[in-house]
Amino acid sequence: MAEQTRYEELIRQFSAFGAVKREIGRMMPSECPSGSAAVLTLLGRYGDMRMSRLSELLAVDMSVTSRHVAHVAARGWIERSPDPADKRSRILRLTPAGQALLDQLSRRTCQLLAERLSDWSDDEVTQLTALMARLRASFDDTRAHGPEPRPPVPPVLEQTTRTPATTQ
Length: 168
Known about the structure:
- The protein has 168 residues and is mainly alpha-helical.
- The chain has helices at 2-26, 34-46, 51-58, 62-74, 96-116, 122-138; strands at residues 49-50, 78-83, 86-94.
- Strands 1-3-2 form a 3-stranded antiparallel beta sheet.
- Residues 140-168 are annotated as: Disordered.
């Protein structure tokens, strides 16, 4: 029974992450919803890629990815060019405007996290980050098995912040 109680508390804490994501979402510019920010973040982290790869990394259906891509392309944040290896496919890449927006979003997110985690030690933040990465890998998330990322770019949507310990 102790094991079940431990996992029930874990489930309650998972639900608290929704509040964290909503708060991060509220600080996003209205023209950049979370799906668009995720596209920019992944292109910033992994570099140019096909839409099929982006769909895998987002862990959503290709039709959802297409809508996100259309949104960011219409705003000039990414460009789609023919794939030299397969002219039927498109390669997605950040434009300078997309990179500038991604940099702005990353700064905002990092500032929010720095404020909310100001009473956390560096070791605690590092430990949380490592545990979240391990959890994601335990669920065989494609992002955990993707190509080697570029040098670290602070993720916009996968940030963490503290949540009050509650016993709901």
